[in-house]
């Protein structure tokens, strides 16, 4: 088993040249370009997907690896996900014997596995020594295909191969990409499963009611509330940026509900500044050098102001498409990436932060 610790940014193809030029200052220890063909399998009733697992065969040159990606943990855009690997002879449908050799399954369905989707992409990666750590930077560009539907892949992954998580945060902060950039918590497997199904909009009003109900339960700790908020914010932003604007362009109420979901989130932040203060106090020894609390409170206010401006714009113009364009632009900027890094810092500081 291998534990991956990585950050992933969704970008545009133009980011490649910016990234490569930026990395030259670190004198990369290694640089390599490869094509990766990936085929994902599941049972007809989506056993793996329901358990937030992904089963794939990856072809790299003439080598084939069967991999099981398990659920793991995602904090903001920081992934920690156990993986299991098994070298196999070819790209045939995995057998039950291979699956049991890969992972100690208690029971497997009797129905055969079927191909769900594929993710094929070119990967260029660099191994960089930064401060006290080694970080692998990978630029992936290609597409996800499920039946007749497809979706582009264009992302940068930063994997901590050795060292400290804080070095990973610092390294990503130095990236000179200013727009069309955001943290992605969705794996290629998750995106593939979503592509294989019709678009479904999350009911964020229900999500918000559930959050408020959980918060009112006795004994709920500030740290648990903060983690739920961070998870909700990441999911809301990522879903909004991934959806085509056409889903909103002809529907005034869908646009109102989507912008309203962001308003509820940032209004809560504005009304509950003490939540950040309580968490900061519990980690005071680790926060001094980062000046996190004032940065996050300022960030909360900035995005709350912008959302209120957007509500006024939509109310005055009734322009759904332009409103969603402004919303997605707001949350795909360098400023928002910096906010998410600081939220992740607040979430993980004080926990074990070294990786070997």
TrEMBL record:
PROSITE patterns given in the database record: CYTH (PS51707)
Domain CYTH: 2-199
Domain of life, per lineage: Bacteria
Gene3D superfamilies xrefs: Hypothetical Protein Pfu-838710-001
Name listed for the protein in its UniProt record: CYTH domain-containing protein
Positions in coiled-coil regions: none
Molecular function terms, GO-annotated: inorganic triphosphate phosphatase activity; metal ion binding
């Amino acid at each position: 088993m291998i534990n991956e610790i990585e950050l992933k940014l969704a970008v545009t193809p133009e980011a490649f040249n910016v990234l490569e030029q930026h990395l030259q200052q670190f004198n990369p220890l290694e640089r390599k370009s490869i094509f990766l063909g990936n085929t994902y399998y599941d049972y007809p009733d989506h056993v793996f997907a329901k358990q937030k697992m992904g089963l794939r065969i990856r072809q790299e040159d003439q080598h084939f690896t069967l991999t099981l990606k398990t659920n793991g943990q995602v904090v903001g855009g920081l992934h920690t996900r156990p993986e299991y690997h098994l070298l196999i002879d070819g790209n045939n449908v995995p057998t039950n014997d291979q699956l049991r050799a890969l992972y100690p399954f208690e029971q497997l369905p009797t129905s055969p596995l079927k191909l769900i989707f594929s993710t094929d992409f070119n990967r260029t990666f660099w191994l960089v020594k930064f401060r006290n750590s080694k970080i692998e930077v990978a630029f992936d560009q290609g597409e996800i295909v499920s039946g007749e539907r497809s979706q582009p892949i264009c992302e940068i992954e930063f994997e901590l191969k050795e060292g400290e998580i804080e070095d990973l945060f610092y390294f990503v902060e130095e990236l000179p990409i200013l727009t069309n950039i955001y943290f992605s918590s969705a794996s290629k497997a998750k995106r593939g499963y979503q592509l294989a199904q019709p678009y479904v909009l999350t009911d964020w009003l229900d999500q918000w009611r559930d959050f408020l109900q959980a918060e009112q339960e006795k004994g709920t700790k500030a740290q648990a509330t903060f983690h739920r908020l961070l998870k909700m914010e990441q999911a809301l932003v990522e879903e909004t940026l991934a959806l085509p604007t056409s889903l909103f362009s002809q529907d005034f109420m869908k646009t109102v509900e989507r912008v309203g979901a962001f308003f509820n989130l940032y209004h809560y932040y504005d009304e509950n500044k003490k939540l950040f203060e309580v968490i900061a106090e519990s980690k005071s020894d680790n926060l001094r050098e980062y000046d996190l609390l004032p940065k996050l409170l300022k960030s909360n206010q900035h995005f709350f102001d912008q959302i209120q401006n957007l509500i006024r714009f939509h109310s005055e113009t009734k322009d759904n498409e332009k409103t969603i364009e402004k919303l997605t632009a707001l949350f795909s900027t360098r400023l928002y990436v910096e906010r998410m890094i600081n939220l992740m810092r607040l979430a993980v500081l004080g926990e074990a932060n070294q990786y070997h």
